Amino acid sequence: MNAKLDSTVTARPVTRDTFDQVLVPTYAPAAMVPVRGSGLDLWDQTGKHYLDFTSGIAVNSLGHCHPVLVDVLTKQINNLWHLGNGYTNEPVLRLALALTEATFADRAFFCNSGAEANEAALKLARKYAHTKFGAHKSRIISCFSSFHGRTLFTVSVGGQAKYTEGFEPLPPSIDHIAYNDIEAARAAIGDDVCAVIVEPVQGEGGVVPGNPEFLKELRALCDKTGALLIFDEVQCGMGRTGALFAYMGYGVTPDILTAAKALGNGYPIGAMLTTNELAQTLAVGTHGTTYGGNPLAATVALSVLETINTPAFLARVKEASVSTIAMLQGLITDYPQVFSIVRGSGLLLGLVVSDAWKGRAKDIQKAAEAQGLMVLIAGMDVVRLAPALIVSDEQIAEAGRLLRAAIDGMLKA
Ligand SMILES: *Cc1c(COP(=O)(O)O)cnc(C)c1O
C-alpha cells in the first residue's frame, strides 16, 4: 500500500471523543454515535437499537433510508449531480410544478436550509416594500420564542435573545411581540412594517400552536398595512400537522411560505414559495445560491412531496397524532408529579414537565435514550416528540413503555 493511502482516515476508528477533538464545539451531541437507520429504527456503533422519535428534528418524516427515496436518489446519482444556475434541470422544474400546484404559491425559490429560505423571504419583503412604498417601510415584526435560523439576519429576527448575544451589531428595524397576543400585534403592525414572520406552530420555542384568531388577525393587519405575511413552516410543514402545510389547516394564507427540514427527508433543501407578483421582486441577479435546486435535492424532495401529499397519508398522520396524544395523556395521568400537559399539532408534540420537574427535560431525554428511545427537547421544560410520519401504533405504544421505564428509573434514583 502506498504511503498516501496508508495515511487516509477512511478506515480509522472514530468515536464520540473525536467530536471533542476536531469539531467546532457548537453542539453537545449524545454519547452514542448512530451508524445505521431504517424507518424509525436506529443502531449505534455498539449495535444498540433505538426507537427514533426525533426524525432528526422533524426532518426524516418518511423515516431513515425510505426505500422509494433511496431508489430515486440512486437513479439520479447515476445521472446528474450538479449544474449551477447557468442551467436549469428537470428535477427542479418538476418540483416547482408540484409545490405550486399543491399550494397557494405560483413560484418557488430553492436553497439549502430553513435559514436560507427565511433569509430569501425577508430579503424579498424588504425589497418589495422598498420598491413599492419607499425606504421607510422596512420594519419586520416577529414573535418572542420564535426560531427562524442561524444566519445573522434570521437569528436577529428570531425571538430568542440568547442566540444573538455577542453577535452585535445586529440588522436594525426588527421588533418582537408575544406569540398569540392579538393586542400586541395590533399595536406593533403599523404602516412602516414590511413583513410579519410567524411559525404557525412554534417548534423550538416549546411546541406552541398558533391560535387561529391570532393568525387571522396577522393576515388582516398585513392586508391593512401592505406588509407581507411570512409563514415559517420549516418545522411544521410537509405533513407534520396532518395538513400538507399548517396554513391549510388554519385557513389563513400567507404571502410567502418557507419550507426545509422534512422537504428533503435529510437531503438538504429549502424552499421559499410565493405569488407571481411578489416573485418579480427578486429579478435576475438580485438573489441566489450555488446549490439551490440541485438535481439530487430536487429529486428527493419531489418524491417526498408525492408520498406525503395524499389524503390517505395525511389522514394517517392525524390518526397517529390521536394515538400519540392518548399515550402521552396516559403518562400525565400516571405521573402527575412529572408531567403537566401535552400540546402541539399532528406529530409535533410537546410534553410539558410539571413545576416540580422544571428544568429537567434534558434529564428525561437522557434517561429515555438509555432505555433505547430518542426524543427531543424544546427548551428545558418540554420533552418534544417528532416521530417520522410513518410511525405505527405499535411503535407509539413502545415509545410509551420506554418513557415509563425511563421515568420509573429516575423516580427510583
Ligand atoms: C429548524 C428551523 C429553521 C432553520 O432551519 P435550518 O435548516 O437549520 O437553517 C427555521 N425555522 C424553523 C421554524 C425551524 O424549526
Walk me through the structure:
The chain is an alpha/beta fold. It is built from 15 helices and 17 strands. It has two domains: 11-60 and 311-412, Aspartate Aminotransferase, domain 1 (Alpha-Beta Complex); 68-309, Type I PLP-dependent aspartate aminotransferase-like (Major domain) (Aspartate Aminotransferase, domain 2), CATH 3.40.640.10. The chain has helices at 3-6, 16-22, 55-58, 67-77, 90-102, 114-132, 152-157, 182-188, 212-225, 246-250, 276-279, 295-308, 311-334, 361-371, 393-412; strands spanning 34-38, 41-44, 49-52, 107-111, 139-143, 174-177, 193-198, 201-202, 208-209, 228-232, 256-259, 270-274, 339-345, 348-353, 373-374, 376-377, 382-385. The chain has a seven-stranded mixed β-sheet, with helices on both faces. It has a four-stranded mixed β-sheet with strand order 1-2-3-15. A four-stranded antiparallel β-sheet has the order 13-14-17-16. Strand 5 (139-143), helix 7 and strand 6 (174-177) form a beta-alpha-beta unit. The longest helix has 24 residues, at 311-334. It starts with a helix and ends with a helix. The structure holds pyridoxal-5'-phosphate. Residues 113-115, 118, 147-149, 199, 203-204, 232, 234-235, 260-261 line the site of pyridoxal-5'-phosphate.
